[in-house]
Design goal:
Elements (H helix, E strand, L loop, with lengths): L3 E5 L4 H11 L3 E5 L11 E3 L4 H8 L2 H6 L6 E5 L5 E6 L14 E3 H10 L5 E4 L4 E6 L4 E5 L4 E4 L1 E4 L17 E13 L8 E6 L3 E7 L4 E9 L10 H11 L7 H9 L5 E9 L4 E2 L2 E3 L5 E2 L6 H19 L3 H17 L6 H7 L4 H15 L9 H7 L14 H5 L5
Helix pairs in contact: 1-7, 2-7, 7-8
Length: about 400
């Protein structure tokens, strides 16, 4: 009789785990509180050991087919002209701001769900209301008053997980930086670059290409006020309009789309480090367990690696608690190899004054020069560094052969 895993979260970590557990003979049920798969979000990168994970999962070609086409990142001066450009690294080189595997978060989620929909029970518009660990199984009570029995429950939710409380308490460290994501029609001026327009007051406007014929725009700002992510969307839009009222470039286009009803995804940068990743038959995965506020999809890469490690450890032994202990032991080096972003780094990357922006751009031009390109871009690497390539993925053979089978 196959074992049953209930997974809360249908973003990246949850479907990735369902993919790997199903390949090992598990029955999988994924619970998601949103009514459908979410397409919101921006570009993410698959970096470090996560590249090997997607290869073993048999989805690498799907990711490459959905590549955004971004060719690099460039800073824009106050006139909209490039101040410094950082092209995408060549294959085999250390990744810069734009990675070799660049994909929209929604597209990666789509690929993972498509590869699991035939062998996973997805229940959208549903939440876990209670968990009861009986020792030999867990009763999962849902918000519709139905219940499921599971051998294992995995909380694969986000930074502000509502279900993490069943494993441990954890305080989110809010860094005071906010992101407003909006998809806008592509303009001829957008091009294939990630354009980063710095604005005084620690504000920025970003535009990035996607593979769907549109442009992904981001408004970012640093504030001493906390909790803006909990406001109604109308209030968040009002805050963005007031914050960027004096900004040109792509900002007016973004607000025109918001006025036309384009959806806004608003988030706050934060970190969480939980004292434990499991309790009994309940485990944490992805940002719910280890969110260090990396950028460029660092959390996504760790989520993919974590799903691989958790499924592999569960396959090694029938002793679930030993498997969960092995998961924490094997996953910790990857988390440790991904240093958290510090507020000081965020402030250096988003200067408060025009003079600070000029200094940043001057330094960036030096780094982007032929001589500078031979050295590591320290600022960029600290923003996007994730799960170093020199951390070896555990060997979970022969189950990997089953994982690598492409979906038919």
């Amino acid at each position: 009789m196959s074992r049953h895993a209930v997974i809360s979260g249908a973003g990246i970590a949850g479907p990735a785990l369902a993919h790997q557990l199903a390949a090992r003979g598990w029955q999988t049920t994924v619970i998601e509180r949103f009514p459908e798969r979410r397409d919101e979000g921006q570009n993410i990168d698959v970096r470090g050991a996560a590249r090997e994970v997607v290869r073993r999962m048999g989805i690498e070609q799907d990711l490459r087919a959905a590549n955004t086409g971004e060719i690099g990142m460039r800073f824009l001066d106050e006139n909209g002209a490039p101040a410094a450009s950082f092209p995408m690294s060549a294959p085999g080189e250390i990744d810069g701001p734009t990675a070799e595997l660049e994909i929209l978060r929604g597209e990666l989620s789509r690929i993972l769900i498509e590869h699991t929909r035939d062998n996973t029970d997805y229940r959208f518009d549903t939440q876990i209301s209670n968990l009861t660990d009986h020792g030999d199984h867990v009763t999962v009570t849902l918000n519709d008053d139905t219940a499921l029995d599971a051998d294992l429950v995995v909380i694969a939710e986000g930074l502000r997980s509502r279900t993490r409380r069943f494993v441990t308490s954890a305080d989110v460290n809010d860094l005071g930086m906010y992101f407003g994501y909006v998809t806008i029609p592509r303009d001829d001026a957008d091009g294939p670059w990630w354009n980063w327009q710095h604005v005084s007051g620690s504000r920025a406007v970003h535009t990035r290409p996607d593979n769907l014929g549109t442009t992904r725009a981001i408004l970012t700002f640093i504030s001493d006020v906390r909790g803006l992510e909990d406001l109604d969307p109308a209030d968040q839009i009002a805050i963005l309009k007031r914050t960027f009222a004096d900004v040109g470039g792509a900002a007016p286009r973004i607000f025109a789309q918001l006025d036309a009803g384009a959806p806004l995804y608003f988030s706050a940068v934060g970190q969480v480090s939980t004292p434990a990743w499991s309790r009994g038959r309940i485990a944490l995965l992805g940002d719910a367990a280890f969110c260090n506020a990396t950028f460029g999809g660092g959390g996504t890469s760790l989520a993919l690696i974590g799903a691989h490690v958790l499924a592999g450890e569960l396959d090694r032994t029938d002793d679930l608690r030993a498997a969960l202990a092995g998961y924490e032991r094997s996953m910790q080096p990857f988390v440790d190899a991904t240093p958290p972003v510090r507020m000081s780094v965020l402030r250096r990357a988003n200067p408060r004054t025009r003079a600070g922006i000029r200094v940043l751009h001057t330094g960036a031009r030096i780094v982007a020069s032929p001589a500078g390109q031979a050295a590591m871009n320290v600022l960029g690497k600290r923003l996007v560094h994730v799960a170093a390539d020199d951390v070896q993925l555990p060997d979970y053979s022969p189950a990997e052969d089953a994982i690598a089978r492409p979906r038919t």
